[in-house]
Amino acid sequence: MENETELRVVHQEEQQREEGEDESQPQNPPPALRRRFVIYLYVGYFLARWSARTWEFSVALYMIHLWPNSLLLAAIYGAIESGSTAIFGPIVGQWVEGMDYVKVLRLWLLFQNLSYTIAGGAVIKLLLVSDLKSRNLPVFAILIVLTNLAGAIGVLSTLAGTILIERDWAVVMSEGHPPEVLTKMNSVIRGIDLSSKLLSPVITGLIISFVSLKASAITFAAWATITAWVEYWLFISVYSGVPAITRSNERRILRSRTKQVEGRDAPVSVSIVPGTEEGYTGNPPSRTGILVILDRMSKSSFVGAWRIYFNQEVVLPGVSLALLFFTVLSFGTLMTATLQWEGIPTYIIGIGRGISATVGLAATLVYPLMQSRLSTLRTGLWSFWSQWSCLLVCVGSIWVKKDKIASYMLMAGVAASRLGLWMFDLAVIQQMQDLVSESDRCVVGGVQNSLQSALDLMAYLLGIIVSNPKDFWILTLISFSTVSLAGMLYTIHLYRIRNHIFHLEKIPLLNKCLFKLLPSRGNV
């Protein structure tokens, strides 16, 4: 039997044995998920993701407006945002794992909405004084720095919420229920994210096109201020109303206390550095200080988080997913700024991004159907290579002479590829949920986001190096090559587990041809 199926069957059998150990004593089935609290979870997550997706779309337009004919400001912002997640992502994951849920909720929502409010206020000031760069460059620079820092803090806060909801609460709420419950929750949560990605750019683009950039910044800052209180009430209601979450919170508090006790009671190992024994009169080795630093780094929580991640069975799918972030072939900051430089109207870019999100939203409907028929692992394979095929249109747009047609081809290829991309994302997330232990779940989620942001950062650094929008074709080719590498890694992972890639015997035409070409056993 194949590894993935074995793990699930063993897990189900263990649960059945535990439930049937004493048939004379009735076992209480897990309480049904109360629909009200599930809806609260979905609505609160929608409000949080709306703020994040609105800022993600708007910031590129603000930066290209403040520094026309250059991707520099947009690329610098993206690099700072991605770099902060790459560096602090594992620490955020461990922080979420080590604190109780109420503290995580309070800090997440406070810092996310406060940061976005400050960033929005800084942008408003920059837009109100159109010639601030020429009149007062130091103030202009300070406001740009403030926007970047506030945006980075907001993204880190959003990461904490994403880990909590997607990697933890969804799994905890579905415990004891059929696997289809988790699959459905994953699809709905991803659908909420993509719905925000669909609607917020359209509305923001309409505000910018028919009102002004200033109006969009004011609307964003007001939204972040108002929704913080609503989000907190919704999530606290879910925490208080779902017993499984309360029990999980008690377990994580117990784990945290156990680790603290073990850390205090652990024996102290004393190592003698060569050349420091008693009676030795020579000079100690010059590398002693470096060795001490390396030893401390190896024992740090940052390195420990990465060690946990690379020991997981799902490390190759995780790396494959992360490689997809080393790309400009998405409606992100660099591609949005380039399309605007090409003369594509803002509302058209918003609609294109919305169409892209709609296609991705369809993935949340198609994924459960494919996963129930092909398994999670194989669904990831088919979805990835369907995405890769669509990106060939983007590569082909490089050789189209008319700029507008090339831009629309680029948008079409990216939008079509979102179906396979988000199905692959769901497949990898569910593999992590199934195969990563509860104690490592948030840590692995933090490292995964850190790795994704590190590769996203590399894409922005490329944008800084290749900052002229007319050279966007170079970034396109590099991005496509990275996507191809990700596909090869995931295919290797599948082959390593299943010892084959395709079920050739299930293809009737091919099976018939092989039967005719190969000699029968009696003639050999």
Describe what this molecule looks like in 3D:
The protein is mainly alpha-helical and 524 residues long. It is built from 19 helices and no strands. It has helices at 3-19, 35-66, 72-98, 101-128, 132-135, 137-173, 179-210, 213-241, 243-265, 288-298, 301-310, 315-323, 333-341, 346-374, 376-396, 403-435, 441-465, 472-498, 508-517. α2 (35-66) packs parallel to α4. The radius of gyration is 26 Å and the shape is globular. The protein starts with a helix and ends in a 7-residue tail after the last helix. Mean pLDDT is 79; it is low at 1-27 and 520-524. Residues 1-18 have a biased composition (Basic and acidic residues). Pfam families: FPN1. Keywords: Ion transport, Membrane, Transmembrane, Transmembrane helix, Transport. This is Solute carrier family 40 member. Its main location: membrane.
**Spatial shape:** globular
Query: What's the pLDDT, averaged over the residues?
Result: 79
Largest sheet: none
* H-E order: HHHHHHHHHHHHHHHHHHH
The count of strands amounts to: 0
What is the distance, rounded to the nearest whole angstrom, between the alpha carbons of the first and last residues? 31 Å
Strand-pairing-aware structural class? mainly alpha
How much of the sequence lies in strands comes to under 5%
Specify the helix fraction band.
over 70%
Stretches where pLDDT is under 50 for at least 5 consecutive residues are 1-27, 520-524
Q: Rg to the nearest angstrom?
A: 26 Å
Number of helix segments?
19
